[in-house]
Structure formats: structure tokens, C-alpha cells
Q: What sequence folds into this?
């Protein structure tokens, strides 16, 4: 199994910034990609950003140009730098890992709240 522990969520004013971190442990060698999803009550969990082992990135259209995903392989950590935050970015953010032979792995989630 792979364990994912997120940190960095919280309350921020609209237009502000937050950085989320996710540390992976366990069967690290099984991970082919890591990323972030988010979910608000009553809606499906949606992809925010993804980064592969090779460094290729994918972003939701709604966050392109504002969010940046990065990865520190030495620390088994993935980051999500969120700038110019909007009210609609408020959600529970989940760290995700694609683990070969194991399946999708999820963190416990971290709340991001955007205020006026």
C-alpha cells in the first residue's frame, strides 16, 4: 500500500496563495503519477493537477495559469502551489497516487477555504 499525508490547507482571502504538500510512504516504487483532486459537497471529485514520474503535467482548465504542481522525488513529496485563489477553488483537496499493481491511492483530504 501507499500512504499519503497532506498538509497546507486552510483559510485564505480571495486572490491569495496557499501551498499544499503531500508526502508519500509505503511502496513508493509502485507510484507512476501523483496529483491533486478536489471535491465540494454534492459534486464529484475532480482532477486539479497531475504529474507523472517523467515530469509531465496535466491541469484542469479552471486552474491553468494559477496553480502549479511540482514533485520532489528525493522527499517523496508532491506540491500544489495555488495562486490567485478564487471562491470557486474552495474544496477539500485530496492527494492522489497512481500505484501500479495496487490501484489509486488517496490521502485523507485537506480543506481549502477562500474568503472575501
A:
Amino acid at each position: 500500500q501507499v500512504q499519503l499525508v497532506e498538509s497546507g490547507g486552510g483559510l485564505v482571502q480571495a486572490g491569495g496563495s496557499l501551498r499544499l504538500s503531500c508526502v508519500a510512504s509505503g511502496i513508493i516504487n509502485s507510484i507512476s503519477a501523483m496529483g491533486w483532486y478536489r471535491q465540494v459537497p454534492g459534486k464529484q471529485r475532480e482532477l486539479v493537477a497531475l504529474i507523472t514520474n517523467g515530469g509531465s503535467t496535466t491541469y484542469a482548465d479552471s486552474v491553468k495559469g494559477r496553480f502549479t504542481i511540482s514533485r520532489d522525488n528525493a522527499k517523496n513529496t508532491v506540491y500544489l502551489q495555488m495562486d490567485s485563489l478564487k471562491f470557486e477553488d474552495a474544496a477539500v483537496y485530496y492527494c492522489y497516487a497512481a500505484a501500479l499493481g495496487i490501484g489509486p491511492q488517496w490521502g485523507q483530504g485537506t480543506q481549502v477555504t477562500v474568503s472575501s
About this structure: The first strand starts at residue 2 and ends at 7. The chain has no helices and eleven strands.
